[in-house]
């Protein structure tokens, strides 16, 4: 059962990426593009509608709502386009990840947080 769940999760992640690609494709009908962009942004975002710290309900959106939303939007996109974007998402998942790029992005976020903290920190009177 565990391998089936892992395969399902990989397909869900691949389809979320494929929806993001379809949302950027001009051949996709505009209502499907809007929904695909919203669903892909939510699926790939670390922010959840229902926080994961809430027992049972926290995973409700990832287990039930998100797959249903992805399935709905996939039906709105022409099948030939979905095949193309799924293949592109598979290729992207197979590419090696750059640790240097990850370090650079983390460094940028830390620098932005430090700058924000410095800007918001109250100045001490002289």
UniProtKB/TrEMBL annotation:
It is found in: Endomembrane system. Residues 32-68 form the DUF1232 domain. InterPro entries: DUF1232. It is a multi-pass membrane protein. The chain crosses the membrane at residues 59-78, 99-121. It holds the Pfam family DUF1232. Keywords: Membrane, Transmembrane, Transmembrane helix. The keyword Membrane applies. It comes from the Bacteria. Signal peptide: none annotated. One of its GO terms (cellular component) is endomembrane system. This is DUF1232 domain-containing protein. It comes from Teichococcus oryzae.
């Amino acid at each position: 059962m565990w391998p089936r769940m892992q395969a399902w999760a990989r397909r869900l992640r691949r389809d979320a990426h494929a929806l993001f690609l379809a949302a950027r494709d001009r051949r996709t009908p505009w209502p499907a593009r809007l929904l695909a962009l919203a669903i892909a942004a939510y699926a790939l975002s670390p922010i959840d509608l229902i926080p994961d710290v809430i027992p049972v309900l926290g995973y409700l959106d990832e287990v039930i709502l998100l797959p249903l939303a992805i399935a709905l939007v996939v039906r709105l996109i022409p099948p030939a386009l979905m095949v193309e974007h799924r293949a592109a998402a598979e290729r992207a998942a197979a590419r090696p990840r750059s640790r240097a790029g990850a370090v650079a992005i983390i460094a940028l976020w830390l620098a932005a947080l430090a700058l924000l903290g410095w800007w918001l920190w109250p100045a001490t009177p002289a």
